[in-house]
Design a protein that fits this description.
The protein has about 180 residues and is α+β, with helices and mostly antiparallel strands. It has helices at about 30-35, 55-65, 70-95, 95-110, 125-130, 135-150, 165-175, and strands at about 5-10, 15-25, 45, 115-120, 155, 160-165. The chain is elongated and about 60 Å long. The mean pLDDT is about 90.
């Protein structure tokens, strides 16, 4: 992808959209279906004006024949995507909803804690954040309200302020019982 933001989604029989992955600039996507001559197994939706580049399979084969190390790089990228998807499946099946949300917020913090506090600038909607956690915005809002009452979270427009790092790490690791 050259620029923009694309979300890859699947739809449940009831029509609910399930976010599979968010595609960012510089990322390659749909490579496996391209290699297999198959259709992309999810629906790709541009969230912003986006520009994508395509590489025909015949051209890719010529490039790999000329530079075999490209095949290894492609395999490494595919293995990394598989690892990420397995981790996402494990997270969604083993962690409680508050743990999934806390885990995502810790990811967004990029380990920029100052003492026991970190500020996170959200560059997405609450609905988008909820989708990334496998829930809906109403559940995200209720979870945020609970954390506000516990003085763990403050919200100021698009900025989230997390306090008590050890508590966040504990919440993020809580598995379903």
């Amino acid at each position: 992808m050259v620029s923009g933001s694309i979300k890859a989604v699947r739809y449940r029989p009831d029509g609910k959209e399930i976010l599979i992955h968010r595609i960012s600039p510089g990322e390659v996507f749909a490579e496996v279906p391209s290699l297999l001559g198959a259709q992309y197994p999810v629906t790709a939706i541009a969230e912003t004006n986006s520009q994508v580049a395509t590489l025909p399979l015949s051209k890719l084969k010529m490039m790999i024949a000329a530079r075999p190390e490209l095949a290894l790089a492609l395999l490494a990228a595919l293995a990394d995507k598989l690892r990420m998807l397995v981790a996402k499946i494990e997270e969604r099946t083993a962690l409680s909803m508050p743990a999934r949300i806390a885990h995502r917020l810790l990811e967004l913090s990029n380990n920029r804690w100052i003492g026991d506090t970190v500020e996170i600038e959200l560059h997405q909607t609450k609905q988008s954040l909820a989708q990334e956690c496998g829930t809906v915005s109403e559940v995200l809002s209720r979870t945020f309200a609970s954390w506000k009452k516990q003085n763990l979270l403050s919200v100021n427009r698009s900025k989230l302020i997390l306090q008590r790092r050890s508590k966040w790490e504990q919440i993020a690791s809580d598995e379903l019982n």
